[in-house]
């Protein structure tokens, strides 16, 4: 009955850190079953938007609904529907892959009788079945990301939210992470909301894209639509540059460097 409801609907969403308006009146609908990419330069407001959707931040104004459920009023119900892979994580290098996922199964309150099966299924979905009993500390960066994906999948979420799932990975590992995301989506029909800085990845793997800049949505459409609006032979990079001016090059600064270092430390 709820199948036609949007996976996410944000209306007039706004959030400020002191005087700094991070999210400035965002209206956004993510359709059920799609892979939706939220793009934008550093500081655009993507992570803050995701935190509002996942109930980690509370919006002072605006409404967020996940499959029709209001996040302000039903936080736990929303959390049960959402799997979230944040930028800074989560996998414990002193535990095996299986133990890491089992820990999340307990945290998410997966019924005891289903835990073992759910853990095995999640590890298999991301291609870590054979490595499940190795310590996560021995995994490559790409395997760690897939392990984090398995952690988010263990409670069978209807909506999977990934914040920069491929940052800091080499091209082969990036492709492998995306392949797993695609397979999971096909197997489960779940909706995927993803942020990325990699335009080529967004172009290839997202059904629709929203470009965010300075807290606002500046463009929304399929990759093909966004490129077509700009003219023949345009790339998503071109679209991005037109919308954000020079911010793509100048964006980042200390926060970006810190984030990249954090990721490198985590993966290294
Ligand atoms: N915890 C915080 N305290 C104060 N300001 C914050 C905090 N988190 C984010 N901001 C500010 O809010 C704005 C939006 O940040 P946000 O992290 O949502 O952007 P982003 O698009 O996710 O950037 P990135 O790509 O670097 O992750 C930025 O100006 C940022 O400096």
From TrEMBL:
> What's this protein's name?
ABC transporter ATP-binding protein
- Record keywords, A-Z: ATP-binding, Nucleotide-binding
UniProt source species:
Gandjariella thermophila
Q: Which InterPro entries match?
A: AAA+_ATPase (IPR003593), ABC_transporter-like_ATP-bd (IPR003439), ABC_transporter-like_CS (IPR017871), P-loop_NTPase (IPR027417)
Top-rank taxon of the source lineage equals Bacteria
Keyword Iron-sulfur in record: no
Give one Pfam family: ABC_tran
Which intervals hold domain ABC transporter?
8-239
User: Which GO MF terms does the UniProt record name?
Assistant: ATP binding; ATP hydrolysis activity
Signal sequence segment = none
